[in-house]
């Protein structure tokens, strides 16, 4: 029984300390499909997502689902500052006026891409994150392709 689990962030240090990075590298693994354990309907290693991820040459990617309505209780991807990194802001942290804001170009919600915890990473990227956490105790921001609602 876990009395004080460290959440999703513990994945990085666990992969490093268990030497799974080295094991995966020796097996020729280049890409890691990461999803929430409570999603019984997930399509593991979705060939469309994997192919798109590889084609774009990115180091991290996320599948998203458009929010159904402004107050839906899901975290959303948000760009921090002009040209800044995309991060996830949880629904409990998003001001209601921002949750309801409309993108004037599209007529849709300004923050409409829900984080449904379906991610793809390169092995190199995860290794860099784990090493960065060990050195700096800071989480490296993921660089996703730009998403416009």
UniProtKB/TrEMBL annotation:
GO biological process: UDP-N-acetylglucosamine biosynthetic process
Family that this chain belongs to: Belongs to the UDPGP type 1 family.
Keywords assigned: Nucleotidyltransferase, Transferase
Keyword Membrane tagged: no
InterPro entries in the record: Nucleotide-diphossugar_trans (IPR029044), UDP-sugar_pyrophosphorylase (IPR039741), UDPGP_fam (IPR002618)
Domain of life: Eukaryota
TM annotation in the entry: none
Enzyme Commission identifier(s): 2.7.7.23
Molecular function terms from GO: UDP-N-acetylglucosamine diphosphorylase activity
Substrates-to-products reaction catalysed: N-acetyl-alpha-D-glucosamine 1-phosphate + UTP + H(+) = UDP-N-acetyl-alpha-D-glucosamine + diphosphate
Entry keyword annotation includes Nucleotidyltransferase: yes
Top enzyme class: transferase
Name the UniProt record assigns to this protein: UDP-N-acetylglucosamine diphosphorylase
Pathway, per record: Nucleotide-sugar biosynthesis; UDP-N-acetyl-alpha-D-glucosamine biosynthesis; UDP-N-acetyl-alpha-D-glucosamine from N-acetyl-alpha-D-glucosamine 1-phosphate: step 1/1
